[in-house]
Design brief:
Keywords: Membrane, Transmembrane, Transmembrane helix. The protein is mostly helical. It folds into two domains: 1-29; 58-114, no CATH class. 57% of the residues lie in helices and 0% in strands. The chain is built from four helices and no strands. The protein has helices at residues 2-25, 58-66, 72-83, 92-115. The longest helix has 24 residues, at 2-25.
Length: 120
């Protein structure tokens, strides 16, 4: 008698667990928890080529040198970014910095030149 009573109790617990599982994972047809696969094995390290100009990239090199050479390297960096077909994703922030600096330098020069225009 005790054996059948314990199996009945165990069966009720299993049904309760199943109902609880159903409520957690199947409300409105959407899963509450995301399931991700686990990749096994050794991670694959892809070795990328070294960036030019001491490892900082041409874009950042042109940006830094632009402060010393009167903004001309910024225009070169902007030209490379606009015309270049294959730009390394690691160098793109430097080219964007050159573009922003070139635009700001152009605005500064235009405002500086036109400021004294009424003296003529």
């Amino acid at each position: 008698m005790s054996h059948s009573c314990s199996s009945l109790k165990q069966k009720q617990e299993e049904e309760s667990m199943h109902l609880h599982h159903f409520l957690l994972f199947n409300i409105s047809g959407y899963s509450l928890f995301s399931v991700y696969g686990i990749a096994e094995g050794r991670p694959v390290h892809v070795r990328q080529r070294r960036l030019p100009c001491c490892g900082i990239g041409l874009g950042w090199f042109l940006f830094i040198v632009g402060f010393f050479l009167g903004a001309i390297p910024w225009y070169v960096g902007m030209f490379i970014m606009i015309v270049g077909r294959r730009i390394d994703h690691r160098e793109k922030p430097g080219y964007i910095a050159c573009t922003i600096a070139a635009i700001l330098a152009t605005i500064a020069v235009v405002l500086g030149v036109t400021k004294g225009a009424e003296d003529w």
